[in-house]
Write a sequence for this structure.
């Protein structure tokens, strides 16, 4: 039995060691690529430093091969790669040398190429190689940076070094020490006061924050007003400067002028004193007005009437607008200036000045007397000429409908408006020019007006819908008939005009 | 009439320089003689190892003594070597954020160098010294002469099993050492230092090649033969009683350790 124990123990050791050996070898073999599993390709590198045999070749960070060999050929390095067979390598493949870590290790990033390019066969060359600059370039940059830092420190040494620099630094430090001591002493001396001040500040800031948060809009308006005020003050100061003058001589003249003005004012006050005396005594019309009771009553009634009138006038809203439309058949534009007076929201007066390319048609009767005896020849001529037309209409609104009546483009007419989508869209119908000879039917116009923005609108529609087109024989101008138009315009209310006038100022003659 | 012959002058003591040169020369002669003796012994062993009778019982006894008997010490040494190596290299690689290289570094170092060297050193300390002492004792007690008297060739009977045991067992202990070392390194790196197991194994697999393992095994065989030859030679040629045996054992240990490192360098050059 003992004879068998020793060989058994040795056998166990051999089996265990053999198993470990085989495992190790298989484990190591799986890390590499066998020839049957891989394709061998190669590429030239100008610099193969950092590359090592069995170095990684990867696509998108996934290992697909390894460096099989690195051979020096002339001045270039021929790097042989083993790439897995399942990688579809093409002739436009690109291999890039890339730094893997700060240790100076490099790997190769492989772009296998596009499908359109021919397949790269076993033993083929990858012609597109990118040598990425590695740690050497970084170290070179660091070296330059170090050099720059050395220059800066050298300059600092020149400035701060030596006795003079040291003296300056010492003085600066001493001043800082004195300053800090002074601040420290002040703070200690007034610690209680500072606490009170800070508490007050805190309270004030809290109040201000509360006010600004709750009245943000008001604060914004206040800031705007302050801006306006400062601008006005600047203008006033400029005016004062113009009045007083900028130089000493101007100032003297201004003072002299002021003296004269004061003298005149003195005289005026003397006259006023005399007038008030007469008024007080009931002399003159003004005196009677103030002393006679009946006259005062009449004046009060007059003032009440005027006040009523002014009140109505102040309620009056005005709207000024311009409109321009392009007439398709006419080939020209039609322009219009309008003024809408709105005493109440449900009614308004519309005044328009219209520049219509159709013009006005007038009939002239021409009598021609022949030189021989006989009846005179009488001819009727229609003359078309451009002239401004006037519209003056009264309009009254009920809910979403407005009816208009009055003068439309210098002829009698009526109109109706249909307001849709909170007045964003308006369908307008106008019927006018009922008695024109050249028109078989009255002129009927349909307009669709859409509000684009606050002050902008667009219009489109058809004019003279019922009549056939007629053109002037001489000028080929369309004088009647259907015509499409499209255009737009602007309008401003009196509030807008006030804002505009405030911003720009009234023109002065 | 008597004649007096003049007396010869007493020989003067050699100087310090002469003594140093003599000592150096003697040492050099000893080294060269030892190398020559070991190489001669190697040829004798090779010659007698293929001759009958094959004493398998002796062979297995030596395999058991050298190999199986060294498993514990080699395994323990390998485990702690791998652990401490992983610990130290991870600290160094952490400076460069490259802890993933811990596995490959430990693996390559163990399989190529440390496993073979340390295994051989362990075998030297444990089995080589025993071989030298045993053979030296047999020599000074004339047991070797007795074998020769009985027409038993002492080289074939005593040395061939020991040399073959060194040849076969040290490579196996090398593999065991690498396995134990990698296991220790894995536990320290993954369990202790938080390196991903996948990273550790994948990177190790990426860098470790079969040739690295072959190199370790070959080195183990070379070291095993070398250690066994030196220890057997020193013991087989011991003289001077117990003191001579002790001196021979000491010389065998020193020479074996030196031969391991020198041969490691030579084999490394040859294989790369």
């Amino acid at each position: 039995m003992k004879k068998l124990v020793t060989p058994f123990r040795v056998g166990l050791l051999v089996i265990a060691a053999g198993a470990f050996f085989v495992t190790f070898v298989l484990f190591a073999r799986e890390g590499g690529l066998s020839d049957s599993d891989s394709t061998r390709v190669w590429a030239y590198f100008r610099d193969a430093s950092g590359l090592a045999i069995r170095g990684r070749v990867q696509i998108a960070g996934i290992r697909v091969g390894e460096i099989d060999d690195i051979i020096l050929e002339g001045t270039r390095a021929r790097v042989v790669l083993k790439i897995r067979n399942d990688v579809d390598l093409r002739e436009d493949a690109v291999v890039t040398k890339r730094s893997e870590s700060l240790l100076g290790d490099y790997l190769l990033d492989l772009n296998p190429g596009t499908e359109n390019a021919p397949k790269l066969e076993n033993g083929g060359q990858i012609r597109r190689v990118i040598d990425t600059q590695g740690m050497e370039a970084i170290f070179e940059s660091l070296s330059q940076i170090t050099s720059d830092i050395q220059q800066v420190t050298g300059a600092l040494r020149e400035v701060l070094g030596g006795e003079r620099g040291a003296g300056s630094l010492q003085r600066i430090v001493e001043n800082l020490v004195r300053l800090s001591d002074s601040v420290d002493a002040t703070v200690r001396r007034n610690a209680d006061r500072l606490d009170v001040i800070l508490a007050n500040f805190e309270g004030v800031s809290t109040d201000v924050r509360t006010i600004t948060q709750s009245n943000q809009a008001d604060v914004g308006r206040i800031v705007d007003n302050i801006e306006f005020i400062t601008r006005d003050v600047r203008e006033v100061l400029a005016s004062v400067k113009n009045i007083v003058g900028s130089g000493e001589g101007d100032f003297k003249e201004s003072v002299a002028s002021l003296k004269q003005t004061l003298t005149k004012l003195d005289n005026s006050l003397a006259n006023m004193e005399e007038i008030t005396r007469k008024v007080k005594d009931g002399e003159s019309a003004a005196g009677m007005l103030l002393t006679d009771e009946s006259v005062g009553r009449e004046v009060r009634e007059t003032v009440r009437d005027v006040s009523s009138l002014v009140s109505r006038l102040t309620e009056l809203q005005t709207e000024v607008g311009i409109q321009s439309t392009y007439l398709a058949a006419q080939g020209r534009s039609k322009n219009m200036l309008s003024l809408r007076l709105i005493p109440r929201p449900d009614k308004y007066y519309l005044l328009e000045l219209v520049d219509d390319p159709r013009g006005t048609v007038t009939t002239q009767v021409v009598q021609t007397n022949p030189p021989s005896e006989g009846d005179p020849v009488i001819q009727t001529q229609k003359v078309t000429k451009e002239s401004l037309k006037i519209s003056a209409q009264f309009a009254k609104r009920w809910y979403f409908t407005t009816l208009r009546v009055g003068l439309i483009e210098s002829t009698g007419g009526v109109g109706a408006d249909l307001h849709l989508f909170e007045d964003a869209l308006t369908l307008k119908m106008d019927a006018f020019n009922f008695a024109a000879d050249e028109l078989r039917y009255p002129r009927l116009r349909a307009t669709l007006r859409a509000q684009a923005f606050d002050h902008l609108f667009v219009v489109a529609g058809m004019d003279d819908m019922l009549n056939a087109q007629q053109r002037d024989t001489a000028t080929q101008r369309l004088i009647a008939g259907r015509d499409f138009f499209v255009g737009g315009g602007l309008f401003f209310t009196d509030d807008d005009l006030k804002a505009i006038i405030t911003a720009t100022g009234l023109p002065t003659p | 009439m008597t004649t007096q012959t003049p007396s010869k002058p007493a020989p003067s003591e050699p100087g310090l320089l002469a003594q140093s040169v003599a000592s150096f020369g003697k040492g050099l002669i000893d080294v060269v003689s030892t190398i020559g003796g070991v190489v001669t012994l190697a040829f004798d062993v090779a010659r007698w190892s293929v001759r009958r009778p094959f004493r398998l019982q002796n062979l297995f006894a030596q395999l058991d003594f050298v190999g199986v008997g060294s498993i514990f010490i080699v395994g323990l040494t390998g485990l702690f070597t791998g652990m401490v190596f992983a610990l130290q290299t991870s600290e160094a690689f952490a400076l460069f954020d490259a802890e993933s290289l811990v596995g490959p570094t430990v693996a390559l170092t163990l399989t190529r160098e440390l496993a073979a060297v340390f295994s051989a050193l362990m075998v030297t300390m444990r089995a080589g010294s025993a071989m030298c002492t045993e053979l030296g004792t047999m020599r000074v007690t004339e047991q070797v002469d007795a074998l020769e008297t009985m027409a038993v060739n002492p080289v074939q009977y005593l040395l061939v099993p020991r040399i073959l045991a060194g040849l076969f067992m040290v490579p196996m202990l090398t593999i065991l050492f690498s396995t134990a070392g990698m296991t220790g390194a894995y536990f320290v790196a993954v369990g202790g230092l938080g390196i991903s197991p996948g990273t550790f194994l994948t990177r190790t697999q990426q860098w470790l090649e079969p040739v690295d393992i072959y190199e370790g095994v070959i080195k183990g065989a070379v070291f095993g033969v070398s250690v066994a030859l030196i220890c057997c030679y020193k013991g087989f040629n011991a003289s001077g009683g117990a003191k001579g045996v002790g001196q021979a054992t000491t010389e065998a240990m020193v020479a074996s350790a030196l031969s391991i490192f020198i041969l490691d360098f030579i084999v490394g050059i040859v294989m790369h």
The interface with chain A takes residues 57, 60-61, 63-64, 67-68, 71, 96-98, 111, 168-169, 171-173, 175-176, 178-179, 204-210, 212-213, 217 of chain B (CB under 8 Å).
